[in-house]
Amino acid sequence: MYNLKLLIGIDIGATWTRVALSKPSGEVLSRTSFKTPRSGGRRTVAEAIIDEVKRSLSKHLHNVEAIGVGTIGPLDLSSGIVFNAANLPIKTFDVAQPLMEELGKPVIMANDCTAAVWGEYVFGVGKNVENLIYVTISTGIGGGVIVDGNLLVGKSGNAHEIGHIVVDASGKMTCGCGGRGHWEAYSSGANMPRLASRLIEEWSLSNLEKMSKVYESYTSNNLSPELIYAEAKNNDLLALRILLEVNKYNAAGFESIINTYDPELITIGGSIALNNPELVIEPIVSYLKNTKGLLTQFPSIRQTELGGDIVLIGAIALAAMPPRNLLKRLKYLSEK
Ligand SMILES: [Zn+2]
After folding, report:
1. Which of 133, 200, 212, 236 could form a disulfide with 231 if both were Cys (CB 3.0 to 4.6 A apart)?
2. What is the 186 CA–ligand 1 centroid distance (Å)?
3. How far does the centroid of ligand 1 lie from the alpha carbon of residue 34, in Å?
4. Ligand 1 center–CA 292 separation, angstroms
């Protein structure tokens, strides 16, 4: 059907794994998804992907040049494995080797946010922007960074775990990783309810605040980020007071990454930011415009236009234009 060369992009998330067939231009021709296996052995995730590719793309496989993978981490890139994943019961699993063996194509693999920033650079609003950061604010907080046109990767592929930047030296909240005071422990979807509960316990609340649905959910141990943002949109005083705190930590994280990497452009994605841009992105920008803490020119900061597809598009971008710095780390490519 397609005579031109094609690419496959794969996004391995904690809940869903998504597979797309694409042209080298990034134009997606077809896509499927399935639930990421939550039980099994080291090859179970890869086998599920192989089955899906063989089932849905077998007639195009002979035209496929390369496969790009953006995956939850942490990674051991040299052997192409996910190592000790925090959000998946199968903690450690092989990705690159089984895909290469069964599908017979080179596999270019990176962590999800690294793939995402590469997607922004190759196909998105970051096209030709040499100093670019992508930040996701979702269940967790993560980032990908390009400096001087080079994708920064790190020794094992785990550079820019920006969600684990310390934003509170007092270490009030403990992060899922075990560290204290990490950005993700305050502003991520997974941890915001714990922060909100802690704040409600510390604050003396007005009667009006005690009438809030957020307070009601706190007392029934049922707080969620969705509720906090929804109530903030209704001008609920307690929700707004909580988000004022959450946004301080977001601003601290952004101030740190801008001073660290000197970007021209930062794009923001992840469900919390994409669903609530006026309550997440706008306060960050307005804080940063007023802080004296930036030692460089103010970068452009905007929502990504690739939306929830950014990791999948990023995986395609890895296959379309493999980043030089990343290829050096993928020892498994030359081991066969
Ligand atoms: Zn952490």
Report:
1. 236
2. 10
3. 28
4. 27
